[in-house]
Amino acid sequence: MSLPVVSRLFRSALRTQLVPVANVSAKPAEHSVTAGEQAIAMTVLFAAILGPSSWILAHLEDYKKKQ
Question: Which portions of this protein are annotated as coiled-coil regions (predicted)?
Fold first, then answer.
């Protein structure tokens, strides 16, 4: 395959969108998210991401030991 064929293939792949990624709309949101809901969501997100990694870092020496 020559370079122009590959570049045309990539261009056509970028132009076609098989599955819509997100519904983007210019209208305002139907439901406004309160500060309490945002705080709960951020707490859950941080716990889900930082919880397992902090557990591993706290028990790193245990994992290094051979049993």
Answer: none
